[in-house]
Design brief:
Oligomer: single chain
Structural class: alpha+beta
Number of helices: 3
Low-confidence stretches: none
Helix content: 25-40%
Number of strands: 3
Mean pLDDT: 86
Strand order of the largest sheet: 1-3-2
Largest sheet: 3 strands, antiparallel
Radius of gyration: 12 Å
């Protein structure tokens, strides 16, 4: 099943966000706490929206807003 479809990620786990951004786990959680990263709980898992992570990395003024 892997490699068959090229699907754009909608969200990252904390570990994946760390790998994708080169930021540490503590830094990721600090940005979530400050409201600079939008994270939601899905079941027992915390996920960060791809739009929010991209906005933070690109230096957007409000990383919690997503483009429409």
């Amino acid at each position: 099943m892997s490699g068959k479809y090229n699907v754009k990620k909608l969200a990252y786990s904390i570990r994946e966000a760390c790998e994708a951004s080169s930021l540490g786990r503590t830094t990721i959680y600090a940005h979530i706490g400050r409201g600079r990263l939008k994270a939601v709980r899905v079941g027992g898992r915390t996920v960060i929206s791809a739009d929010s992570l991209n906005a933070l990395i690109s230096g957007g003024d409000d990383a919690t807003k997503t483009s429409e």
